[in-house]
């Protein structure tokens, strides 16, 4: 897909949620430096679900962190919904993350002293906004936890906690949802529930989801699988999509991982 990039660096591709251009992320310097991402160029079309796979240490989390404005590339550019992140101040990045991006992590990251509804309302409170009760209830219902609003994380299963984390990510109606191993700590049934919800956010609401996973079953919920090896995109499966089995994905990802050897 081609499109124009204006002189001011804004990205006018209306159908691209995130674009990475030649993104390199190096840690450290000199002989001990590690290149976590090496000239990665990728676009994530709006309303699609992408899984990022690859061996341990291949740069998957770094890719997610750079794309989400949680980490800054050493070089290259990241554009989210037309906004070039590399030019933003820390405050600008914080605001963008708060208003336009949602996150879900393997470890849920809920505050244990708060109830489900208080956890869900937190992003709005942090933004200085009064969380509308109806909206909090709506997102909790969306993830199937309408009856658990007053429960604390310790009173919920792992799958329920991850669904609270999902509701918290959705409260601001983000354009893009990033998920780093969202099912990594869950049993397979709870994992499937979370993946079905992620899929629904793409199909039902047109959101863009980017998910790091080691699990071909999780990847089988995505439209596309990007395979990273040694910080580079080694290939991708387009139209991975629902209907393509996890075994097929596992086999094709293994082939793509080996292709650099
Ligand atoms: N803060 C850091 N300082 C130094 N090296 C780092 C740092 N963060 C990541 N790295 C290195 O960058 C490379 C990519 O790490 P990253 O966590 O992105 O990989 P990953 O594919 O997500 O791995 P895993 O599947 O094991 O979670 C690895 O070699 C890692 O050791």
Could you explain how this protein is built, in words?
The chain has one domain (16-258): P-loop containing nucleotide triphosphate hydrolases (Rossmann fold, 3-Layer(aba) Sandwich). α4 crosses α5 (158-170). It has helices at 60-67, 90-100, 116-126, 133-142, 158-170, 188-205, 216-219, 246-258, and strands at 16-27, 34-45, 49-53, 75-80, 83-84, 101-105, 176-180, 208-212, 224-229, 232-238. The longest helix has 18 residues, at 188-205. The strands form 2 sheets. Strands 6-7-8-3-9-10 form a 6-stranded mixed sheet, sandwiched between helices. It has a 4-stranded antiparallel sheet with strand order 2-1-4-5, with helices on one face. β7 (176-180), α6 (188-205) and β8 (208-212) form a beta-alpha-beta unit. The chain has 261 residues and is an alpha/beta fold. It is globular, with a radius of gyration of 18 Å. It contains 8 helices and 10 strands. The model is unreliable at 1-11 (pLDDT under 50). The site of adenosine-5'-triphosphate (ATP) has 12 residues, from β2 and α1. One of its GO terms (cellular component) is plasma membrane. Keywords: ATP-binding, Nucleotide-binding, Transport.
